[in-house]
Each structure stands twice: as C-alpha cells, then as structure tokens.
Amino acid sequence: MADPNLAYLALLLLLPLSILFFLYLIVRPRPVRIPIKNRHVFITGGSSGIGLALAQQAASEGARVSILARSLDKLEDAKQAIRLATGVDVAVFAADVRDYDAVTKAVEEAGPIDVLIVNQGVFVPQELERQGLDEVKFMVDVNLIGAFNMIKAALPAMKLNRSDRGPASIALMSSQAGQVGIYGYTAYSASKFGLRGLAEALQQEVIADDIHVSLIFPPDTDTPGLVEENKRRPQLTAIIAASSGAMKADEVAMKALSGIKSSSFIVPCNFDGLLLSIATAGLSPQRSFLMAFVEVVATGIIRFVALCYQWNWCRSIEKWTLKNRT
Ligand SMILES: NC(=O)C1=CN([C@@H]2O[C@H](COP(=O)(O)OP(=O)(O)OC[C@H]3O[C@@H](n4cnc5c(N)ncnc54)[C@H](OP(=O)(O)O)[C@@H]3O)[C@@H](O)[C@H]2O)C=CC1
Ligand SMILES: CCCCCCCCCCCCCCCC(=O)[C@@H](N)CO
Q: Is 23 within the bounds of a domain?
C-alpha cells in the first residue's frame, strides 16, 4: 500500500520542479556566449578605474581593445600601463561623449565594434537643494546622453555582417545607485536609472540583430573617481552607501566581463548586489532559468529584507538630522 506521506512529498517536489522546467522552456531571450578573444572591444572611460581594469582584462584575454576618454594624457598613461601589464597595445581615442560628432569620428576610425562597453561616468554627490543645476546637467549629459551618443554612433557598424561575426554586446555601466535611490544622488541616480530604461528598450530593438545588452551594477568601487567623490560626499551618502561593501576595480571588471560573456542582462557584482537585483527584477529579461527560478521563489522574502533596509536608512537620516540641527 502506498504511503500517503510519500505521495505528499512527491507532490511537494513536483511543484518546484515543474516551475523550473516551465521557466527553462520560456526564458527569453535565450542565453548565448559572447566571445572576447580576437574581437574588437571598445570601452569608454577606459583610461581610469573600472574602465581601465576592463581594458586590461580584455586585452589579456586576446581582444583588440580601444579606449575612449577626454584626456589624451590619461589615455596615453593607461595605454602604457596596459602594455606593461599585458604586452598588448590598445588604441586610444580622445573625445568627450557629450560631443556626438567627435564620438562618431572616433568610432569610425576604430572600426566595427563587437563588444561596446559604455562605462564613462561622473558623480558629484550633493543634496539637490545645495547642488547647482549645472552639476545636475553635467551628470545627466555625461552618464545618460553620453550613452545615447555612443550607442547611436556605434550601432550601424555593429549590425553590419553580424551573422558572419558572431553575437555582439552592448554593456552599460550603471551602479547600485541605479537600482535604488540614495541620499545625495538625485541627479546621479536619475542618470543611472535612465540607463535601465534605455537598456530594456534597446534589448528588444537589437535582439533580432544578435546584439545582447548587459547592465552592470557595481557597489562603491576603489577608483580615482571614488577618491575624488569622497572629498565632498555628504556623510549620509557615505553611511547609506556603506550598506553594500566596497570592491576593487579589478573585481568589478571581472564580474562585468563574465556577465557580458554569458549575455546576462542584469549583472550584479557582489552578494548585496544579487539581493538588490532580485528585489528590483521587475520586467527585465532574465536569460538564466535558474536565476529566474530564484527570483520567482525568493522575491517575497527579499522584499521583506528590502523594507528592513529602508527602515534602517530612515533611522540613520533621523538620527543624523537630530544631531546636526541646531
Ligand atoms: N567607483 C565607484 O564607486 C562606482 C562607479 N560606477 C560607475 O562606473 C563607471 C566608472 O567609474 P570609475 O572607474 O570610478 O570612474 P573614474 O572617474 O575613475 O574614471 C572615469 C572615466 O570616464 C572618463 N570620462 C569621464 N567623463 C567623460 C566624458 N565626458 N567623455 C568621455 N570620457 C569621460 C574618464 O576620463 P577623462 O576624465 O579623461 O574623460 C575616465 O576614463 C562610471 O560610470 C561610474 O558611474 C558605478 C558604481 C560605483
Ligand atoms: C534587498 C536587499 C538589498 C540589500 C543591499 C542594498 C545596498 C544598497 C547600497 C547602495 C549603494 C550605492 C553605491 C553607489 C556607488 C556609486 O555609484 C558611486 N561610488 C559613484 O558615485
């Protein structure tokens, strides 16, 4: 005689397994591998911090690498550093991403791109009430409009002969502050949230051309940019941002590159980032059926954890305000 407990157990196992199988059937777009070796990787903001680490890793994996930034001096220094570390020469392009004509010229000179990494970014933290609109516009222009300029300039040649050249990637460097708004980051968070809208819509437009979009979400990362930022970061910004541990530029570059290679749409960089990505999954594509399963099962409990973070942040703001109000 069959044990009824066993029957319950079988049912209990059957439910998650069938959800898993269902997700395996339906996740779209399907994951693809995006090779790096012998391909043209073009990195904006490639002369410093995360971009420089990405350029170095891509070069050491056998890619043909181009880097773009404003200062030619910093580009030449980066080129030298990459040559020393890898023995590989990268091509450098001095242009401001806010200048569409300059960017178009650079992209034409560099030749058709297989992997475009839009990584340039500026961050000037400040309460909106105290921040000038010039700084607000600066961040939106460089971080968001700069991404539009780069993609518009690169896309036509990226699409050309794609079927002979294999799958391509457009990766955008967002930030955890592009998944949750943080005190002192009104303009910065808006620019980075903006990249998400751009990326979700763009992925639908270019999937038929075998182009795969990735959005990367690093926490605080030890770079020259962060050193500058820290000189004027409001205390509360630092307190709240410390909710996610800091990373090294090399670690972020490694996570980013492996996310790009596996064509992941959302690329978190650490464990808090993974929780954050599940909490904010929304209607983004998820190419991994395993991650899709984790999202389906864990979203409720992670929302609970997210509300605890909000509670904690609000408490920090209250305490800080009490202490600093005369
Ligand atoms: N460091 C951090 O804590 C985090 C950073 N990020 C994001 O990662 C990206 C890289 O940050 P990070 O490595 O710290 O930055 P850095 O400040 O160290 O480097 C920024 C790079 O972007 C270039 N750049 C800046 N403005 C422009 C422009 N208008 N046109 C072309 N290039 C430009 C810089 O060169 P030049 O000045 O010569 O133009 C430099 O190469 C940014 O998008 C940032 O928002 C995300 C999360 C955390
Ligand atoms: C559901 C559970 C969630 C748990 C984790 C939440 C952690 C959020 C921390 C956000 C930190 C934002 C840092 C931005 C860094 C950056 O972009 C700058 N250094 C550049 O300006």
A: no
C-alpha 48 – ligand 1 centre gap (Å): 7
Domain span at residue 67?
Answer: 31-273
Which ligand has the shortest distance to the CA of 176?
2
pLDDT the model gives residue 1: 52
CATH assignment of the domain containing 193? 3.40.50.720
| Ligand 2 site, residue 265, Cβ cutoff 6 A | no
CA 284–ligand 1 middle distance (angstroms) = 25
3-state DSSP of the chain:
CCCHHHHHHHHHHHHHHHHHHHHHHHCCCCCCCCCCCCCEEEEECCCCHHHHHHHHHHHHCCCEEEEEECCHHHHHHHHHHHHHHHCCCCEEEECCCCCHHHHHHHHHHHCCCCEEEECCCCCCCCCHHHCCHHHHHHHHHHHHHHHHHHHHHHHHHHHCCHHHHCCEEEEEECCHHHCCCCCCCHHHHHHHHHHHHHHHHHHHHHHHHCEEEEEEECCCEECHHHHHHHCCCCHHHHHHHCCCCCEEHHHHHHHHHHHHHCCCCEEECCHHHHHHHHHCCCCCCCCCHHHHHHHHHHHHHHHHHHHHHHHHHHHHHHHHHHHHCC
Write down the pTM of the prediction: 0.97
Does residue 126 form part of some domain? yes
pLDDT at 65 > cutoff 70: yes
Count the domains in the chain: 1
Asked whether residue 280 is domain-assigned, the answer is: no
Asked, for residue 148, whether it belongs to a domain, the answer is yes
Tell me, in angstroms, the distance from the centre of ligand 1 to residue 120's CA. Answer: 4
Instruction: Report the catalytic residues.
Output: 174, 188, 192
Per-residue model confidence (pLDDT) at position 167: 98
Q: Is 175 in the pocket of ligand 2 (CB under 6 A)?
A: yes
Q: Whose CA is nearest to atom 18 of ligand 2?
A: 220
Residue 325 — very low, low, confident or very high, per pLDDT cuts 50/70/90? confident
**Ligand 1 pocket test, candidate residues 120, 150, 176, 182, most atoms within 8 A of CB:** 120
